[in-house]
Design a protein that fits this description.
There is one protein chain. The chain has a single domain (6-128), classed as Rossmann fold (3-Layer(aba) Sandwich), CATH 3.40.50. The protein has a five-stranded parallel β-sheet with strand order 2-1-3-4-5, with helices on both faces. Helix 5 (97-106) links the parallel strand 4 (88-92) and strand 5 (110-113). The protein has helices at 6-10, 21-33, 44-51, 70-78, 97-106, 118-128; strands at 13-17, 37-41, 58-61, 88-92, 110-113. It contains six helices and five strands; from the N terminus they run αβαβαβαβαβα. The termini are far apart.
Amino acid sequence: MSTTSVFEKRNKTIMAVDDTPEMLTMVKEIIVEAGYNFVGARSGEQALLRLAGERPNFILLDVQMPGMDGFELCRQIRALPEWHAVPIAFLTAHKSEQSVRQGIGAGGNDFVGKPFTVKTLLRHVDHWAFRRVGQAKAS
């Protein structure tokens, strides 16, 4: 169980980007029920537009999306200096070694595998929502 207070959580915003409406709705319900603010986007392009007016503390990206995939979206987010310190995790069914390397190389900090449990997702969110990171570098 998290020791983070509801007050601390309601001052944090989590962004999720997923092209599947059902997945985005499920993630939103979990995030909001846990006490966080939520911002959603259904595409990489929409996410970049939303970032112009939002200040999420943690970003969850689906990898496989039409148009701009999650890796490219992560690279574009990391190219913006104001987003270097915001943690980014990939929310994906693709957790192969190659995908992990590609995600880290794109600037990601973590992977949350699909399917996931509420407990697993919130463990990652609670961990990253209160942290700042440097721009990730490929190893």
